[in-house]
Amino acid sequence: MSLQDFFRPDGRHLSRGGILLLMAPFFMLIAFAFLYPLISLLSLSVTEPTAGFDNYARILDNPVYGKVLLRTLWTALLVAITSLLLAFPVAMAMVSSSGPVAMLIGACILLPFWSSVLVRTAAWAVLLQRNGLINEAMQWFGITSEPIRLLYTQGAVVVAMTHVLMPFMVLPIYGALRNIPEDYGRAALICGAGPLRVFTEVTFPLALPGVLGGFILVFLTALGYFITPALLGSPQDMMIATLISQQLREFLDWPFAAALVGVLTLFVTAITLAFSKIFRFDRMMGGQV
């Protein structure tokens, strides 16, 4: 088989066989590093200590686990909404800017990728402690008369996770906004629409694929987040990833932890399928509308 067999007649695009050949190493890596461990872990949840669904029954019988799952879903939703509200203006500023200003905004968005999540979470722990910068600033401005509890709360978890995950919201929205022709906005203004109406009826609807792509990306990532909730949250605000870690490290209950992973996997899969059914994923990452 010659190299030409992997290209289409135009010589510029790969054939289906060429695409499969290039994707083969990626699929092998996914199968070895993700699918095999996941399937092995899920099989443990229905085979140990006895065959059956006893581990899943424990989750249904104890309302605490249901509350942890609902808290996880609620926290992930808050993080996704907050990230969207903060990311959209930033993405619009990136599209509207040029030269050094655009480079500065882009650097601020990409800079967090250069440090680990642990470092960024530890920085928030320093800022939110009783003698931290935020408490001292609020006392200096007269907002509070004494330090208040900011650390080890759900609010601290939401704020820190939003800071960590917001770049994953900005980039899809930025891609979608860049694909909107400038003539659309000018035409709306010529027809008598005000800036607010141009945004609500032209800009935002056309940017919706990027908004949805960023939202589902941040939401699904937040569902399984571990480091930030573990360091900044309290035991009363435990999320499911922290609960799984507790079952593994403290109780050594691998079958029950595997059942919790199965429940989380089920929720993530169901949410992903629901979004893929309603929206096309090839249009959700900033593609043309």
Short summary of the structure?
By secondary structure, the chain is mostly helical. The chain has helices at 16-47, 54-61, 63-96, 100-110, 117-128, 133-140, 154-178, 182-190, 195-223, 227-232, 240-249, 254-278.
SSE string, helix = H, strand = E?
HHHHHHHHHHHH
CATH architecture heading of the largest domain: Orthogonal Bundle
CATH topology of the largest domain: MetI-like fold
Amino- and carboxy-terminal Cα gap: 39 Å
Annotation keywords:
globular; MetI-like fold; 2 domains; Spermidine/putrescine transport system permease protein PotB; mainly alpha; 12 helices
Please, could you describe this protein's structure?
The chain is mainly α. It has two domains: 1-47, no CATH class; 59-283, MetI-like (MetI-like fold, Orthogonal Bundle), CATH 1.10.3720. Helices cover 72% and strands 0% of the residues. It has twelve helices and no strands. Mean pLDDT is 84; it is low at 283-289.
Please render the helix and strand layout as text.
Blueprint lengths: L15 H32 L6 H8 L1 H34 L3 H11 L6 H12 L4 H8 L13 H25 L3 H9 L4 H29 L3 H6 L7 H10 L4 H25 L11
